[in-house]
Each structure stands twice: as C-alpha cells, then as structure tokens.
Amino acid sequence: MQFLKLFPETHRNLDCLKAASIYVVISKEYAMAGKKVLIVYAHQEPKSMNGSLKNVAVDVFQKQGCSVDISDLYSMNFIAAATRNDITGELCNPQHFRYGAETMEAFKKGVLCEEIIKEQKKVQEADLVIFQFPLYWFSFPAIMKGWIDRVFVQGFAFDFPSIYYNGLLKEKLAILSFTTGGTEEMFSKNGVSGDIRYLLWPMQHGIMHFCGFKVLAPQISYAPEYTGDKERKDMLLSWAKRLETIWEEQPIECTPPWYFQ
Amino acid sequence: MQFLKLFPETHRNLDCLKAASIYVVISKEYAMAGKKVLIVYAHQEPKSMNGSLKNVAVDVFQKQGCSVDISDLYSMNFIAAATRNDITGELCNPQHFRYGAETMEAFKKGVLCEEIIKEQKKVQEADLVIFQFPLYWFSFPAIMKGWIDRVFVQGFAFDFPSIYYNGLLKEKLAILSFTTGGTEEMFSKNGVSGDIRYLLWPMQHGIMHFCGFKVLAPQISYAPEYTGDKERKDMLLSWAKRLETIWEEQPIECTPPWYFQ
Questions:
Q1: Chain B environment of A96 (Cβ under 8 Å)
Q2: Where is each Flavodoxin-like fold domain found (chains A, B) (predicted)?
Q3: Cβ contact (<8 Å) for B142 and A142?
Q4: pLDDT tens digit string along A91-101?
Q5: Environment class of residue B33 by beta-carbon count within 10 Å: exposed (0-12), middle (13-18) or buried (19+)?
Q6: What domains does chain B contain, in order, with CATH numbers?
C-alpha cells in the first residue's frame, strides 16, 4: 500500500481503522491538490452576493491546494458580440461572413483574436469550470453569453460528430452557480415562473453537455436581495461546505427527464 | 354598416356575398394599415438567411401599409453588457452597484443612457416586435440578449406585481423568428437536442410573456446552411405568406404544457 510507504511511523502507532480513514483523507487531498479550477464570473459589483460566492470558492479551492483562475468579465471589459474582429487576418469568405465557419477555420489556423485564445487556454487547462452569475431573464447575463458564443468555437469545444457525450471538453466538469431575483417558490413547478430546471435546459444541456462537460447539479442562491443577512450568510456557508467535497460528486444525468419530469 | 356608407355604388352592383367578402378584405387592410412593427435583428451579414428573412418582413409589412422600424444590432454596434454607463448622472448607491435597482430608478427619473431610451421608444410605439436571429447555443446571440437585458428595465417592461398577464407590454405582440444550425430531426422529442420547444421556455415565457407580450408561435427556419437554394427560397416564401395574415393569428397558450408535453 502506498500509504505504508509514505507513513510507516504513523501506521505502527495507529490501529487499522484509523490508518484507513487517514489514508482516505490523505488520498482525497492528493487527488484534489493540483486540480485546476476556472471561475467565469459576471457581476459588476465586487461586494455583491455573486462576488462573495466567487471569493468563497477561491478560498476553499486554494485551501485544497487547487489552482484557481478567474475570468472577471466586467473587469476585463469582455466583448460580448461575435464579430469579424474575432478573426485576425484574412477571412475565408469576406463576401459572405459566416461567424461559425470563419471562427472554426481561424481556430485551426491559430488566428483567432488574442482575447479568445487566452480564454480557450484557461478552459483547456481547467478540470472544473464554474459559471458564477446573477440570472438575467431566465439565462446568463449577455456578457457571459458572449463569452460562451465566442470561446466555445467549433474545433475547440465540439466538432461533428464530437458532441454531447463525445464533446471535446468531455474530461472536464462544469457547474452553474447563480443567484436569482425570484424566490424558490416562484421557481417551483406550480410557481409563476415554473420549475427552475426548465430554464436550465438550454444552459446545461445545450451548452455544457453539448461540449461534453460532465454537469454537476447547479448551486442556486435564491433571491439574496430579498432575504436577511443570516440567510445570505447561510448561502455562502452552504456553497463553501459543498465545495469541500465537490470532487467526489457525480454529475447529473443530463437528459430530458432530469429537467421536465 | 360602415361599408355601405363608404362604397354605396359597389354595393348596388354586387350580390350580398361578394359585398361581404370585399368588406372583410377592406376591414383587414384598414386594421393592418398604420400598425407599427419593430424588428430587432442580429446578424453580421446582410446577405445571410436572417438578413433575407428580415427583408421579407419589411416588404410584406410595407405593402400592408404598416410602418417598420429596425434595430440592426451589429450595425449599431449595440453594447451588450449591462454596466454603470447605462445610468447617466448620479447613482442611488455608488458604494454597492445593483444594476436592476439603479436602472429602475434611472428609468423613473428619465436618466437612462440615450441608447436605451431610444430602444424603449421603439418598443413603446410598436404593436408587434419581431426578434430575427440565428440561434446561438440554444438561445439568443449575446448582442440580442444584451438588448433585452438593457432595454426591458423594471418600470418600463414590467413591475411588481405587473408581470406575466399583467406585464407592462401586454398590449403588444412578440414573435421569435430564428434560424438553427441543427436540423428539425435533431430538435425533435427523440432527437439529440430535444424538442425545440424546450429551449423556447426561457425566451418566450421568461422574457416575452413575463413582460406581458402576447406570444405568437415562433417562425423556425431549420439549418438553412445545410439545405439547397430551393429549400431556402421556400423558407422565405413561407415566412412571407405567414406574415400576410399575421395580424389575425391567436397567441400561443404560454404555459408549461405548450412547452413540455
């Protein structure tokens, strides 16, 4: 056993059960240490709940010995619109611009713009990508949708037939962590806004799962602006607690029944 | 009867049935003429299928005597990100920026930025708003999501409890007209991407219906890039044909069964 080689003294001084449990803990730490996390973060205000949720994640992961990279989209003035400027140099067909076809070719030739290349490198290196954002209109804020539209280029994130379970990012985990304006009751099956899972379909299935990501259950912080300090603190604690064992989580079964039944 | 006063000669020379049918046609034209349409359009290439679908709509509506306004988002370099710049003058709470609260106040005081005010005026005047776009990642392209994030401000498009059937835009019609990358089969109940209606929920229910719009059935042009000229022409013709009687259409029943059953 690896453990015996590493800690022979410890082993001699403990009974088997204790040794085993320490071994598990150490194994976990070894497994976590060195993991890479990318947080794609979209909030204008560092003091916001989203800012705090992002900070909590950075703290927990750093304590685990993971490296954490952050794409702070508003601070970066990240461009949301998908335009010709995303391709440096000549277009394949300047007479009829097709964004998808042109960015796919540009990716192959290595002539995407610097901003996209940089984000793709961060994704490529990450074991886990966390999207931290306030829900805007049942979806991502536009600045984060723009990050997805521009970074997940064909050839990089997917190709044909490399989609869904064969998506090019299939070795990675993804998780949506977001705050809502509406309450949990509004986002229930009989609430005015319907089951929250309904709106997760395009984001989790149509984007994450499409690119191959293994999707972890979302972290939803309901209506922080309408609750008290205690509740907000609890939301942060519950996120911190969950992140301590996030590497052991099983991804969700990303098929229609999870969303609509 | 109004008709008799307008066309006494015609009436004397025709039988009752003919008179009635002409009356219906004329009534329709009177009903359509003067209607106002806003097309929010997001494509980089004028020669694209989306560009053609937009042009077809302009033609048909102008023939009907409607006025048509277009927000051509890429040409306008429309800003997608929701930032402090959307509020001119002083913030209510510059120490802790909350986009929703600040834009609501700014709307009331009339100090939203010029770009937003202009778009809100177009929406206010419109009887029908058409969103014309290529589906990007099961949703709007970011530039169009940004238009929604920034234009549909609380106080303008909705308020509490003025949401859904009481939304502030409840006298208006909305329709999504979009092209897809995937085929109709991929977007079927047993296809890899699931029923197309699943992904319409956040856009139609969470945005349009939330603001009170009466939602017309979407116009979906499947995979124009992978079909022949004949099929693309048919898509344009079918859109043109539908628009001829669009003012008579009944809105969809925007509740979960429409989407998920």
A1: 45, 47-48
A2: 35-242
A3: yes
A4: 999 999 999 99
A5: exposed
A6: 35-247 (3.40.50.360)
Share of chain A above pLDDT 70, in %: 89
Question: How far is residue B4 CA from its own chain's centroid?
Answer: 37
Average pLDDT, rounded, for chain A: 92
Chain-centre distance of CA B169, in angstroms? 12
**Tens digit of each residue's pLDDT (9 = 90 or more) over B104-133:** 999 999 999 999 999 999 999 999 999 999
Q: Is B81 near chain A, with CB under 8 Å?
A: yes
A167 near B CB under 8 A = no
- Which parts of chain B register pLDDT below 70? 1-30
Q: Which of A47, A141, A259 sits opposite B149 (nearest CB)?
A: A141
Nearest to B81 among A95, A142, A193 (CB): A142
Q: Strand pairing of B67-72 and A219-221?
A: unpaired
Q: Are B194 and B156 in contact (CB under 8 A)?
A: no
Q: Which two tokens stand for residue B125?
A: 């005047």
> What pLDDT does residue B166 have?
98
**Which residue of chain A comes nearest to B93, CA vs CA?**
A45
Q: Would you say A56 and A241 are in contact if contact means Cβ atoms under 8 Å apart?
A: no
Please give the torsion angle defined by the CA atoms of residues A133, A193, B182 and A172, in that order, rounded to the nearest 10 degrees. Answer: 40
User: Token match 């609501």: residue?
Assistant: B104
Q: How many C-beta atoms lie closer than 10 Å to residue B255's C-beta? A: 11
Enter the DSSP assignment of B215: E
Phi then psi dihedrals of residue B74, to 5 deg? -70, -40
| B142 conformational bin, left if phi > 0, alpha if psi -120 to 50, beta if neither | alpha
| Dihedral angle over CA of B104, B109, B110, B114, nearest 10 | -60
d(CA B194, CA B185): 9
Q: Residue A71: CB partners within 8 Å, gap ≥ 6?
A: A38, A39, A40, A41, A78, A119, A122, A147
B256 touches chain A (CB under 8 A): yes
The ipTM of this complex is 0.90
Minimal Cβ distance to B202: which of A45, A74, A139: A139
d(CA A227, CA A69): 30
Residues in chain B: 261
Given a contact cutoff of 8 angstroms between Cβ atoms, the answer to whether B176 and B200 are in contact is yes
Task: Report the residue of A40, A44, A232 to disrupt the B interface, i.e. the one with the largest count of B CBs within 10 Å.
Answer: A44
**CB distance B207–A145 less than 8 Å?**
no
